[in-house]
Amino acid sequence: MSIGNGGSANGQRPSPPGDYPLVIVGSGPGGLQASYFLDRLGIDHAVISADPGPGGMFRRFPFFQRLLSWTKPYAPYPRDSREFERYDWNSLLADDRRHRGIMPELMDGSSEFPSRQEMEEGLVRFAERTGLRVRYGTRWEGTEQRDGRFVLATSDGEYRCRVVIFAVGVAQPWLPAIRGFEHVAHYVDTRTDASYAGKRLLIVGKQNSAFELASGLLQWASQIILVSPRPAMLSVNTHSLAGIRARYVQPWEDSNLGGGVAILNASIEQIERLEQGLAVHTRSTESGEPFVAEVDEVIAATGFQCPLLDLTELGVSVFGQSGLPAMTNAYESADVPGIYFAGTISQGVPGLKKFGIPANSGAVHGHRYNARLMVSMLAESHFGKPRHRPAMSRTELVDYLLAEASTAPELWHQKGYLARAVFVDADGTLRDDGIVSLAQFVDEGGPDAVAITVETDQSGEIHPVVYLRRHGWVAGDAWLEASTVHEYRTAAHRRELRALLGDLAA
Amino acid sequence: MKNEDIVDTLAGLSLFADLGRPQLEAVAHTFSEEAFPLGQRVLRQGFTGSGFYIIVDGEVTVRINGEDRSNLGKGDFFGELSLLLGELPVADVIATAPLRVLHLGGPDLRAFLLQYPPVMYRMLQSVSRRLVRANEWATAHR
User: Fold this and answer.
1) pTM of the shown model
2) Residues of B with CB below 8 A from A356's CB?
3) A228-260, pLDDT tens digit by residue?
4) To which CATH superfamily is domain B3-140 assigned?
């Protein structure tokens, strides 16, 4: 495959070390998506990756079963349409219709959830068809700032640039500093399922990776105990991707029915090696009572961190268990201007998180839109390429916003996080501002404008929500009526929205 | 901040002074850590769906109708009033320094407080102190 040689038809590896306006580090979905939109805007850049080919984390994970994100080949819109993206969580975005909806062509009808191999192949095809130029086998090893430029030391030599985008994933295994964890395998070191046949297994964690392992090993292990301090949540209850996804609930049902799985809410105090197996000393977070589990093996599904190398020495501050960088709403480091982040790292920009519901920026169907938005913002701020903001008639506004609320994939995948915005320019003309960050719209001022989002309320109902900016200020949010079939192009919604918009929609 | 560091931080905050280590670990796993740059609005006056926040690093200003009314720092919390009353927030809260907070979604606050009555008692004490200060402010500005 030519792409494995560096994405160049003649076998030459592209983008040798040297000076570039911008460098992207990483060739997972985040890096590829950012590179694609930079290409579309004609912004010269290099992409470097330590991997031998595209795919990022999907070259390796998930271990068992399939992805958690679906692609529905027979959705109600054509596969090359923007609307189809709402039903296809896994294809990267493209302006050219020929390059859209790549994933459905790889699905064989056995599941709407692609396998890891199918996902990796989808990313390979995207990179090939869109002609992305990635220098594979080039490892980023260090970072400096010199004469107002970033200098990236790599295994191939020095790259120098004004702007750098790190799309390096959140994939560095993390283990807690608890006595005895040296006897514990991390999730990434999980072996083939059959090698756990007959084993008593303890899994540390109750996130999806823990339940993925438990689901995959249910028929192999003789016993499975899941342990972490807080009770597990289900995504069907949180109305979001936070919590155990429906596909991994089987171990929970097994536990409820007494099938052999135990789920403990406890902290782990230490792990001790026995003559045969391990003793895991726990203490209940509810009763405070101790409990010792004797098992053959322990796997830590305790999460991952960002591999940010020496960026913290450069001044990039990080936060949280995953060591995410602190960022502005433009995905730029809050501390070091010129450093941007794409891909799953973009989950470090929380947005409004209304009712505690997070954005989907940790997953491809969320962060692919963040990457497009980030590129359009940095194209304006660093490369003098303003976004096209077409004029529109006030008489069109109500129908346009309700159509967006009904079908816009950005609003459905990034609920309460991305918005469609329309503003009044200095001449009094209405202009489409495109898909914007809701936090920027409500917090950063600007001309009179309206933004519409799709959001989930406390009861789990989904509504369009309208934000009006007047005299630089957004005073609150207005929730339109919900719709059982999620269709808001109705007479009642038109009346409701027109009344809210007033003279904007005259 | 790693979870064990969050546990240490929580242990040093008066709000959680009565909890043991396993409970603090559960609390650390219940909240999510978020970072906001200087100038970023964290709580928004008049917006639905707000949350509860505990400051682990940095400072904020509490702004009502555009007027800065008080400053909060490490260990302080905000967002609880509107959640307890079921009303929209009556203030903006804005980072006046790079800010790190622990965040709990609004719908989860009630269950959290009922699960940890010592935290509820400490919160009640803190809210009472704020009420006294607010009365003093009102008297001074009468």
Assistant:
1) 0.95
2) 51, 103-108
3) 999 999 999 999 998 999 999 999 999 999 999
4) Jelly Rolls (2.60.120.10)
